[in-house]
Amino acid sequence: MLGLRTFQRATRAPAFRQTLQRRFASAEQGPSGIGAQGLDGAAMKNAFNSERAAVKDHAAATSDLWRKLSIYVVIPAIAIAGANAYRLWVEHWEHKSHEPPLEEQPEYPYQNIRTKNFFWGDGDKGGQLGKDGGVGS
Q: Is residue 104 over pLDDT 60?
């Protein structure tokens, strides 16, 4: 409630109203309909407005270029790269299927050294089901 009253008092101040009126005043359309568009082109002929129009046209052309690149170049490139990756994946596993199975890695004494147990158990069987179906047994 206090914040609302403070806001209402502040907006009644003439300096605040003038700031808002200046802030929201539009160069495109004035209150009486006379503005940059309402005149017979004299206001549109200055350097600032012509530069803004050129920047706007350039932005429209550039965004159209990037939209076309995204649709007509990037999407087909992703599809081609995906097809190539799938082909290489299948070729790799076809090659691997003809090789003999890998031999088991030896267990060295310096591997899996445990100085203390993990909070869920000894840490050697974490998350694996044992013979009786229990976890870590």
A: yes
